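Friendly challenge for the regulars: who can give me the structure tokens for this chain first? No prize, just bragging rights.
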Amino acid sequence: MKNNIKIKVKADYIEDQSAPSIDRYVFAYTISITNNGQIPVKLISRHWIITDGHGSTQEVRGAGVVGEQPYLAPGESFKYTSGTVMESPVGSMHGTYRMINDDQEEFDATIPSFTLSIPYALH
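First reply, four minutes later:
Bragging rights claimed.
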């Protein structure tokens, strides 16, 4: 497959930056993006949909990730860590990365939905 981007996510609760008494819950997430396709690609922008436990949704759009627009040859990976703050102890995130390949074709790579949760909030 020409364009084949694999995205893995690991999320963590950051207890020492959170303040549950004022509904402030801080989460970090580490993303690994791997180009399993046949030609090089560049990540040009991101679109996140963040939903807290109250059902409130926030959309975040921007160029690149963590100030970078990584260029990935076939087989290469890029890993980064970022974070978000929510007003509930449980929520979720998902979205897309806008990519462009060396043939100048743009496409979206889906970021699978993942859960943000304080320890022991979910069974």
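Residues 19 and 77 are 34 Å apart (CA to CA). The chain has one domain: 5-117. Your move, everyone else.
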